[in-house]
Amino acid sequence: MKCAVVYAANNQYSKVLGISLMSFFDNNKDMRDVEVYIFSNGIYDENLKRLNALAGMYDRTIHIIDIREKLSNVNKRETSWDVSIYSRFFIPEILPEDIERVLYLDCDILVLEEISELFSFEFEKDKTVYGVLDRYNVTAAARLDLKDGIYINSGVLLIDIKAWRENQTSEELLAQCDKRVWQFPDQDIINYQLRGKIGILHPKYNVNKFTSVLPYEYAQKLSYQDIDKYYSREMYEQAQKKPYIVHFSGSMFNRPWQKNSRQPYHEVWDEYFRKSPWEDMEYDKRRYTKKVSSTIYMWITEKILWQYWKKNNYSGFVDKYIKLQKFPVKLKSFLKGEKSNE
């Protein structure tokens, strides 16, 4: 079976992509038969040269495909998300017909172990995509009316391309882009459109900022509180002890490529960065969102939560986190003159 790893990025994220790719090459030196594709949404020549230089460091070849024209034709609602997020919808159209399985990876990840077993992983008959449960998006299943309660994070996707093509999945996903204002556009669409066809991977393949540190009981409290589709303590602690893929999703406490990062795996990311073709570049400044109100809310939230996190006061952190997540909803209701039921 012929397999491939696929990334997608714009120029702004090319450095982050490069460090992720470096971690994959470094920890999967024996996987010579897996092709690597990069979908470029306008990566500049200087960074394209760096990416090719990085591949040369490991005696590997990468295929860089410019997909700006395809992305420009995506009919979507206005959103603050970069259009690159829709790149994964074009995977079957762009990749050669003989590739049967794809591992799609977001740029903001580190591959810390050999992941060859994913390419020999046996899919259930009715599944098209596998991913790790998005443990902290607790309202997503209800919001999208997902009867089985399964909602995966789209940053790591194991895809059966043959099934995807046969079911015309790309066309169905693209058709959903302008149907409504999706909270997490690509991720919501994948979970909604492929409901019933999604399988669950071990959490070690997508360890996020909280999983890497929070003890099981506190992580469970933040997670699918009223849903039985959750990882066991054993699986959770296996992922925490030996993560295969670490995902720097979300904005909490800065990301490892930003100045003054508080991410638990910042030092690992920095070690790769210092050996990479981007080593002469500076760390990025902290960025929030374009909306002033959202920026203020995020800044205050991080300041409050960090006081608990740095002291390993996980009980206080979780309680405060849940209250702060509910605050914007309560504020909107208050401004509309609605009465609270609490």
Concise account of the structure shown:
With 342 residues, this protein is α/β, with parallel strands linked by helices.
Description:
This protein has 13 helices and 9 strands. It has 342 residues and is an alpha/beta fold. The protein has 2 domains: 2-287, Alpha-Beta Complex (Spore Coat Polysaccharide Biosynthesis Protein SpsA, Chain A); 290-342, no CATH class. The longest helix has 22 residues, at 314-335. It is globular. It starts with a strand and ends in a 7-residue tail after the last helix.
The major pleated sheet works out as:
7 strands, mixed
Count, helices: 13
- Straight-line N-to-C gap: 56 Å
* CATH C-level category of the largest domain: Alpha Beta
Number-wise, the strands total 9
Determine the structural class based on helices, strands and strand pairing.
Answer: alpha/beta
CATH architecture of the largest domain: Alpha-Beta Complex
Radius of gyration: 20 Å
Mean pLDDT: 87
Beta-sheet strand percentage?
5-15%
Overall morphology: globular
Q: Helicity level, as a percent range? A: 25-40%
Record the strand order, biggest sheet. 3-2-1-4-7-6-8
- What is the fourth-level CATH superfamily of the largest domain? Spore Coat Polysaccharide Biosynthesis Protein SpsA, Chain A
- Number of domains in the coordinates? 2
The SSE order reads EHEHEHHEEEHEHHHEHHEHHH
The CATH topology label of the largest domain is: Spore Coat Polysaccharide Biosynthesis Protein SpsA, Chain A
Report the uncertain regions.
331-336
